[in-house]
Specification:
Layout: H1 5-32, E1 50-51, H2 57-68, E2 72-75, H3 78-83, H4 89-93, E3 98-100, H5 108-120, E4 127-132, E5 138-139, H6 164-168, H7 173-184, E6 193-194, H8 205-212, H9 214-232, E7 236-237, H10 239-255, E8 258-263, H11 268-277, H12 280-300, E9 305-310, E10 335-337, E11 340-341, H13 343-353, E12 361-364, E13 367-370, E14 375-377, H14 382-399, H15 401-418
Parallel strand pairs: 2-3, 2-4, 4-8, 8-9
Antiparallel strand pairs: 1-6, 5-7, 9-14, 10-11, 12-13
C-alpha cells in the first residue's frame, strides 16, 4: 500500500528537523569545546574555563599533549594531577613547557602506555616527572577462584587510536551537557575544572572546606584509607608493576629524557596508618626495590639521567597539623586532606627535583632547622634515609602525639568491625 503524500511529507520534515538538531548540537560542542579539542573559539567568560574530565580522560589528555608537544610531562595518578602544576615557573626557568598527563585512579601501567604512545608518535620529552605510588604496587589477595583479568598488552593499539571515543565526544548528549556546563562555570571559582595543560586545581574543595572544615575531609579520607590499607597489608608487592617501571626507564633512555621519580609526600596521618595496618615493612621493601631498579637502569643505559626523590617522611611539611573538629576557618598550608597535597607543596617539590642540590634548607613556622625534604635516594644511602625518617617520626610524635593515637584508634576500630582482632 503506497504511503500518503502527508506521511511522506511528515517523514521528510522529521528528517530535516533531526538533521538540524544534530547540526546545532555538534556546532555547540565544537564551538564551546568542553574537552579543549578543537580550539576554534577560545574566549574568556565564554569557554576559557573547562570542566573537569569525567570520561575519556586518558584519550583527551594524550590528544592535547600530542597537539602541544611540550618538553616535560607529569605522570601519575590523582596526587600528581592536583599537586603538580605544569605552569610552575621552574619549567620555564629550565627552558621547558610542561603538560600534566596524570590520570586519577590509574597505576604505573597507564603511565607506561602513555610513554610508549608518545614515543611511537615521535614525542621525546626532555623531562618526565613520574609520581610513583607505593599502594599501586601492592596486590590484594583474590577470594575468587576465577582468573584475574590481565592488563592490556603494551603493544596493543592504544585507546586513543580508536575512533569511537572521538565520535562519542562529538555526537553524544553527554558532550552537549558538558558544553552547557562549560558555559555556566565561567564565573564560578569553586567548580571542578581542568586547565589547558591538564592540571586539576581542585577548586571544588574550597566550598567543602568552608562548609565542613578540613577535619571532616581528613577524617573521611582516613576512614577510607584504613579499610584499604588493611586489605593491602594482606597482599604483596607486584612484580608486574616493576616491569612497567623498567619499561618506562628504558623508553626514556631511548628518548634521552631526564626522569625524576617522585615518592609522594604522604601526610603523617597516612604513614601512621601504614604502621598500624602492618604496611610499613612492605613500604621499606618497596623503596629498596625502587632504588635497585634505578641502579639497574643506569647500568643498562650508562648515559641515562634518572633520579629517585623520597618526599615521604614525618618532616615539617608532612606533619602539618589537622584543624580541630568543627573548625571551618583555619586553613591548611600544604594538604587538602591526607590523600592530596596542595599545589603549594608541589611547587616546593618541583623546585627540589630540579635543583642540583640534594639537601634544602626549610624554614617552617617558628622553626629554622636543616631538614631533608626530597631525599635523593639510591642504594648507597638507604640506611641514611631510614635514619632520617626515624628522627622525623620522633619529632612529629613529640609535637603531635594525638595524630598517632588517632591512627591506632582507627585501625583498631576497623579490625573490630571486621572481626580480625589485633
Amino acid at each position: 500500500m503506497p504511503k500518503s503524500p502527508h506521511a511522506l511529507l511528515f517523514l521528510r520534515y522529521l528528517a530535516i528537523y533531526v538533521l538540524i538538531g544534530i547540526t546545532i548540537a555538534v556546532a555547540l560542542v565544537v564551538i564551546v569545546d568542553p574537552y579543549n579539542q578543537y580550539r576554534i573559539v577560545v574566549r574568556a567568560g565564554f569557554n576559557l574555563i573547562k570542566p573537569g574530565l569525567t570520561r575519556y580522560q586518558n584519550e583527551i589528555k594524550l590528544t592535547q599533549a600530542a597537539a602541544m608537544r611540550p618538553d616535560a610531562f607529569i605522570l601519575g595518578h590523582s596526587r600528581a594531577e592536583v599537586g603538580f602544576d605544569p605552569g610552575e615557573p621552574v619549567f620555564g626557568q629550565h627552558g621547558m613547557s610542561a603538560y600534566n598527563l596524570a590520570i586519577p585512579g590509574t597505576g604505573i601501567g597507564n603511565a607506561h602506555e602513555q610513554v610508549e604512545y608518545l614515543h611511537q608518535i615521535g614525542i621525546k620529552p626532555k623531562v618526565i616527572v613520574l609520581g610513583v605510588e607505593f599502594l599501586d604496587f601492592m596486590t590484594v589477595p583474590q577470594k575468587s577462584t576465577f582468573a584475574v583479568p590481565q592488563a592490556r598488552r603494551i603493544d596493543d593499539r592504544h585507546p586513543i587510536t580508536r575512533w569511537f571515543w572521538r565520535f562519542d565526544t562529538l555526537f553524544s548528549l553527554a558532550s552537549v551537557k558538558d558544553a552547557f556546563h562549560t558555559l555556566f562555570i565561567q564565573h564560578n571559582n569553586e567548580t571542578e575544572t581542568i586547565t589547558p595543560r591538564g592540571f586539576n586545581p581542585l577548586n571544588e574543595y574550597g566550598s567543602m572546606v568552608r562548609k565542613e572544615g578540613h577535619y571532616a575531609l581528613f577524617q573521611q579520607r582516613a576512614l577510607e584509607n584504613t579499610e584499604t590499607y588493611l586489605k593491602k597489608a594482606k597482599g604483596s608487592l607486584s612484580l608486574a608493576d616493576f616491569d612497567h617501571l623498567r619499561a618506562i626507564l628504558d623508553t626514556a633512555a631511548e628518548s634521552h629524557s631526564d626522569v625524576k621519580l617522585i615518592i609522594y609526600p604522604y601526610h603523617a596521618q597516612i604513614l601512621a596508618l601504614f604502621e598500624e595496618a602492618g604496611l610499613w615493612p612492605a613500604f621499606e621493601e618497596w623503596k629498596s626495590l625502587m632504588t635497585r631498579e634505578v641502579s639497574a637502569a643506569r647500568q643498562r643505559h650508562p648515559t641515562v639521567r634518572v633520579n629517585l626523590f623520597d618526599f615521604s617522611g614525618y618532616g615539617s611539611y608532612n606533619c602539618e597539623k589537622i584543624p580541630e573538629k568543627g573548625d571551618r576557618k583555619s586553613p591548611t598550608r600544604w594538604y587538602w586532606e591526607a590523600g592530596h597535597f596542595k599545589k603549594e607543596l608541589g611547587t616546593v617539590m618541583l623546585n627540589v627535583a630540579f635543583s642540583p642540590a640534594n639537601f634544602v634548607h626549610a624554614a617552617y613556622g617558628e622553626q629554622d632547622t636543616w631538614e631533608v625534604f626530597g631525599f635523593q635516594l639510591d642504594e648507597s644511602n638507604r640506611a641514611l634515609n631510614q635514619q632520617r625518617v626515624y628522627f622525623e617520626r620522633s619529632e612529629c610524635m613529640r609535637i603531635y602525639p594525638e595524630l598517632f593515637a588517632e591512627a591506632a584508634k582507627l585501625v583498631e576500630g576497623a579490625r573490630k568491625r571486621h572481626g580480625t582482632g589485633g
